[in-house]
């Protein structure tokens, strides 16, 4: 969440919120709060209409992580800060729950897709086998090369090649 949104929720000016954070800088390490870059601010303004007032601001907004928001309640010591912090923490818990739930759904869908891909391949093999039964058998040439090993291998290759051509490139075994 950015400082402007939090200040509005806590009903304090953004400047006062940022001053309180600066006075308590040790409570806000880099993984609790960070300042947006100009590029990040421009992207935020471009993608979200509600951030248009930031477009001409000379100040770069601060963004607070979940832990940073939790720490704000100890810095902004008011009844409103405590109430808002509880609501925000509950929202983060719900968000985490939704993400976890969606992660489970995503994994289940990926598993189903893998099964479908495997079944599609198995069905394709089954249909190819069925089609091969419907086509006339490949005529095989009797080998006159039983004694010459090299000639026999050439003959075997030609038979396999002819079978593959006849069955649309698939070599079907067990006919």
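Q: What amino acid sequence fits the structure above?
A:
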């Amino acid at each position: 969440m950015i400082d402007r949104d939090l200040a509005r929720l806590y009903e304090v000016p953004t400047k006062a919120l940022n001053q309180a954070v600066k006075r308590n800088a040790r409570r806000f390490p880099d993984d609790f709060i960070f300042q947006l870059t100009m590029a990040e601010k421009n992207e935020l303004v471009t993608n979200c209409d509600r951030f248009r007032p930031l477009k001409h601001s000379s100040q770069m907004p601060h963004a607070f992580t979940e832990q940073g928001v939790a720490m704000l309640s100890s810095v902004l010591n008011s009844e409103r800060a405590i109430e808002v912090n509880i609501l925000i923490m509950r929202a983060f818990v719900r968000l985490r729950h939704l993400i976890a739930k969606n992660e489970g759904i995503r994994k289940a869908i990926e598993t189903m897709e893998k099964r479908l891909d495997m079944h599609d391949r198995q069905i394709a093999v089954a249909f190819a086998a069925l089609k091969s039964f419907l086509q006339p058998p490949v005529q095989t040439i009797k080998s006159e090369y039983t004694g010459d090993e090299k000639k026999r291998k050439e003959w075997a290759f030609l038979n396999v090649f002819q079978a593959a051509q006849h069955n649309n490139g698939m070599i079907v075994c067990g006919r």
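Q: And what stands out in the fold?
A: The chain has a mean pLDDT of 78.
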